[in-house]
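Go through this fold for my students:
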Amino acid sequence: MVSKDVEEEIRKAALKNALDYGKARDSTVINTVLSGFPELRADIRELAWAVNKEVSRINSLGKEELEKEAGAYRKEFEEKEREKAIRTAKPKMELEGAQKGHFATRFPPEPNGYMHIGHAKPVFMEREFADIYEGGLFLYFDDTNPEAERQEYVEAFKKDLEWLGIRFDGEYYASDNIERMYSYAATLIKNGNAYVCLCPVEQVKENRSTGKECVHKKQTSAENLRLWNEMIKKERDTGILRYNGNLKDLNTAMRDPTLFRIKAETHYRQGAKYSVWPTYDFNTPIMDSMKGVTDAMRSKEYELRDELYYKILDLLGLRKPRVHSFARLEIKDNITSKRKLKEFINSGNISGFDDPRLVTIASLRRRGILPEAIREFVLRFGMSKTNSQVGIDMLLAENRKLIDSRAVRMFFIERPRKLSVGGIPAEARKIRMKAHPSEDLGFREYEVGSEFFINSHDAISLKKGSLARLKDAFNIRILEPGGDTIKAEYVEGKGNDLLKLQWVSEGNYVDGKAISIGNLLSGDGFNKKSMVVTDGYIEGYASELKIGDIVQFEKIGFFKLDDRKEMTFISM
């Protein structure tokens, strides 16, 4: 008997196949289901039976009935078609103008939070291009906001990047170059290309929106330089340095944006040495030029700011790198916003930045997602500028391909029902089951008595006099299916076509928990069913596992051992 999740997948696959080709085919539906549940290869006969039954039902429907039943899945079918197009497309791995042997790029995280899957896309792309063009990739911490940045985030990024297997050819920090930034700022001021504005923040925003100039824009270079020096010497605690452009520019990014602002907080790396800090718009182009970057990659949300990027370099007479844009990668029904994550943590909805429901790298690592799966997943999207908001199922499917051959098969018994089997001969009491149906992962071995536990949802299928098989063990005949204990007797035979019951035996099991992970969000709010904890009995073989080991609970899915004391497993 297949699980309800598999039944649902069979139904959807059969409906989709019938819609596409007029009739559903068993082989097509089986292959579709196996792509999401590769562990079912071990029970292919049982799967084939369930598929045949559902395909026959679907093919008996009239066109109107078929479309009506499929309507419930229409949105999901459309999404899967879109994901298929992304998955099968071959990204063009080239950068316009990039030259082999003369190439350098950088990965520029701000250390104000933890690394997430959105960061993984650019860094894998950058490493790939550095290899293609026989150049270098540098780790560049864009750390000019002392309010939010922490050494712990720097270390967390380094740990995650090392785990992902990213090679860097050097490392540098924006905050180590503040004096040089001050010098470049003074050059802009002297040439009339920047001015110190003392307007309140809200007034600055309104003026930029309406295109209205403030009185400070008319200040002389000498006056601006005086105010600037007061700012950097900590003689004043108000003021921002702004680019002196056109406040009616059609490109709103060019409407006198802020280049420096006062932030008096202690910096994690520079201490209290500075209180005036450059913004991304000023700092990034100069750092790229200074550090020899030939090709900078950033998400297309910055495209309006590319004009400012090049303008800063032109005004300072600095070398200009090429800038390449790509679409951000977002996971549907999840969040990466640090503000929102902190809200969820403070409210108790999630346990921390490594909560397995998240898409931080720490969370994915804890959940058992392999670096190779993340790499293959993110590289599918290439340098496309098409917004990529996809379901996490695509990443999980990539991961299952990699872990299937190394995952020990085991039984997890939820809502256990006691089963007493009489007449078991001595030679049948020693059970030896393969740890994997096709790989050489050893055996799970038990010596059993007469008392067992089976799943309650299997128990309800048992009828008096019916035959069943304790999977990989022996056949039984049901004598008394009711009561607190099901009573049965041992029966000779192989029983290939019998109902197979997962089981644990008295004295050969441990108490455990299986945590099933779903989408973090439901609509715009927190999904209260994003984590479901199921208590149950697990084969005694589990006591030999180490934290991080991967198993496949048959008919449930792949899980990683997260806590050995509580025997807690997290779904993958």
About this structure: Residues 329-406 form a domain with the Glutamyl-tRNA Synthetase; domain 2 fold (CATH 1.10.1160.10). The chain has a mean pLDDT of 93.
